[in-house]
Specification:
This is Transposase InsO family protein. By secondary structure, this protein is of the alpha/beta class. It has nine helices and five strands; from the N terminus they run H-H-H-E-E-E-H-E-H-H-E-H-H-H. Helix 1 crosses helix 2 and helix 1 crosses helix 3.
Length: about 270
């Protein structure tokens, strides 16, 4: 009825199967590349976005199936928490200006800050981070073996030195004694930065920086052997934050591009 010979039909069928296999091999190779290049951190949604950028037409479901076939599994979180907030003090508390509004219209409009614990065989380490809510970039950070006011002050000074924000910046943190200290409040005032603080015991008021620290633990801390020395922790954390997280890692909330790329796009548009 189709006026096609049996031999012609089977030849076409074999060629079609071979083409499908060739295409799957190509996609599999690119998936493996991005999985390794992104330090085994990316799951199927992010790898799917990278493939689309290349012009490969493939579904996220197919990417997930191939990753499962190849045994490629992104890092998983582990439950571990060290108390880093001491709100039992008599220092002044700033009003909650953010009110869980984590949206921003430009860089250096809203910064959020927090402290987290970093495990190390040589001794305890604490990381103070400051995140820009518009670009999702870590604009300031400091690692130290003591959870003091100097720790958060150094992170703030670094952020201000690099970004040079204007007078309309809101700095939001929890009620920890470090952020409520006279020294920190004075530094914010000298920079003309408006302080804001979460409600007592409400982690949702500072959810964005909490989420970043969760990503940091899942992708970087828990997927690697515990740091042997504090110097090793400093060096590896520097590479992760400055070269991977800020400049390479795609962020789903800003269109699957890196924070540095997103910031650059903003200044190109307003120029």
């Amino acid at each position: 009825m189709l006026k096609v010979s049996k031999s012609g039909y089977y030849k076409w069928r074999v060629a079609e199967v071979s083409e499908q296999c060739k295409r799957k091999e190509e996609i599999t190779d690119r998936i493996k590349y991005y999985f390794q290049f992104k330090h085994e951190i990316y799951g199927s949604p992010r790898i799917h976005k990278e493939l689309l950028k290349e012009g490969l037409c493939v579904s996220e479901r197919t990417v997930g199936l191939i990753m499962r076939e190849q045994g490629l599994r992104s890092c998983m979180a582990r439950k571990f928490r060290v108390q880093t907030t001491d709100s039992n003090h008599d220092q002044p508390i700033a009003p909650n200006l953010l009110q869980q509004d984590f949206t921003a219209t430009k860089p250096n409009e809203k910064w959020v800050a927090d402290i987290t614990y970093i495990p190390c065989r040589q001794g305890k380490l604490y990381l103070a981070s400051i995140l820009d809510l518009y670009t999702k970039q870590i604009v300031g950070w400091k690692l130290s073996d003591r959870m003091t006011t100097d720790l958060v002050l150094d992170a703030l000074k670094q952020a201000h030195s690099v970004k040079k924000p204007g007078k309309d910046l809101i700095h939001h943190s929890d009620r920890g004694s470090q952020y409520a200290s006279k020294e920190y409040r004075s530094q914010l005032e000298s920079y003309e930065i408006t302080p804001s603080m979460s409600r007592k015991g409400n982690c949702y008021d500072n959810a964005c920086i909490e989420a970043f620290h969760s990503i940091l633990k899942r992708e970087f801390i828990y997927s690697n052997p515990k740091f042997k020395t504090k110097q090793e922790a400093q060096q590896k954390l520097y590479r992760y934050l400055e070269f991977f997280y800020n400049r390479t890692r795609s962020n789903s909330t800003i269109g699957y591009i890196s924070p540095a790329q997103f910031e650059q796009l903003y200044y190109q548009q307003v120029a």
